[in-house]
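Hi U.,

Before I forget, here's the chain from the pilot set. I'm dumping it here mostly so it's searchable later in email.
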Amino acid sequence: MSDELRSGDPLTGELTLQDQVIYGALTTLAREVGHRLKRAAYSSLIRESDDYGAAIVSSGFELLAEAETTPLQMGPLAGYCQGVVDTLSEYGEALDPSAVYLHNDPYRGATHSPDIGAIAPLMADGELFGFVGTAAHHVDIGAAVPGTCIIKAHDTFSEGIRLLAYPVEQGGKAIPAAWRLIDSNVRMPGLVSGDLRAQVAACRWGQRGFERILQRYGIKRLRAATARLLDAAEFQMREAIRELPDGRYSATGYLDGYEDSGEVDIKIVVTLDVRDDKMTIDLTGSAPQLDHAPINMPFQGTTDMAVLLTLRMLMLPETEFPNLPHNAGMFRPMTIVAPEGSIVNPTFPAPTIGRFCGGQMVANLVVRALQDILPERVCAGCSTTKAVTFAGQQDGESWIYMDVTEGAYGGMQGQDGHDAVDVLYANTKNNPIEDIETHYPLRVERYELREDSAGTGQWRGGYGPLRDTRILTDGFVSVEGDGFRHAPWGLKGGEDGATGGVMIFEPDEENGRLLPSKIDNMYVRAGTMIRDLCPSGGGYGPAERRPEEAHQRDIEDGLRAE
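Structure:
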């Protein structure tokens, strides 16, 4: 065997130069696939908010390379691929190398049903090397109410169209009947199918790009290099875990739940058990699943990603490991335990479409559990991102807009929390006001940071935003949020941040009223304004240690009163 093919030393995580070049080629391909999806997409969720992902996955369903978008869209793509193969096997079908499959089943790898994956096989000399996949959040999938901010659902069938390893192209040609079925089951077929076709086209580009890589390096080198790349990431994670003191580290938090039904303060428990170079993450003690409320979290695609992506960020931060391959090898030393039938591992057919805030809490608790053994890397409590959907009819056609209002990070050792950004396991962007007002009958009248809301501390928490949006026609509003009952916590003597809220101001009304964190398709008249108040992050360290110049800077920036 030549030197360039010789396996790197598993005890050192050694990589050859060619391994690193091949990793660069696969990563560049994943980024190109993602870029083509973004530039071809119709909806603002993809082209502006970056609520999409792209990745290269091995035939063994391990992530090999990913684009630079939101982790919650890239990380689960290996699960989508496995879901496609398992579904085909269950129905006695073979994987078609010429097909592109759509898949969104939250009980077969998808993170939740609006995040639809497009999966295409990557073949080499007649054998399956792996897959190229894209995933993206779609603005409507034909559920009982417009949009995807669905906070009341009887079961997973209530949440919209289910696509299980659903082929939409075969032999390089579209399947018209497949697209007709999708178009006839969503409220905005041009937008939704336009985004899906962009995903499919991006996968086809990925197949062509892989063929070029294959021609350059050959399948033998590719397989050997990707195996070493996975081993190298595993080695680095094991070394990082080994540096932690053995022990059990736990944290508990609560979701708002549903005030109208009395199902409130939904408990989530995360316990990390560190032993040598392995870690077990145990969610035993978390609340039972809610059978008719869609805030349950699919274990594969949401719960596992909330845990693994957060630990990757904490254990192997990119500032310290800039050249570490981003692949599934780093997850090999970790085992996740989540009791079946709990909110973090529901059983079919419990609804799951509103799982995002719960996943944020899981990620938050992973950080909190490590506060005493990684004090220089953890942050105080982060506030969750909120989604507000506006919908209606105009000129005989449906319109739907989903507004993602960002949260804020908690303070951490050495720096204040980041203001008005997506946090932890997600990385979406807000939508520019110009884009909103150009495409929808909405007017954004106020958008700013919430004054005097962040938790104080030696390093203050980040400020969440405030946003006033007026609907210009009669329509409907739905809200999927959390953190109205429980504030992001302070750490190491820092103070808690601020809870969030949503207020409604009827037309010509000066004093609004506060709404709960979950609103189910509420009718509103033209001229109604919705005020979105996002929570703010907790502080880190005692406030009396905060430098006077930092306090003064917050006052000068208008973030705090005198």
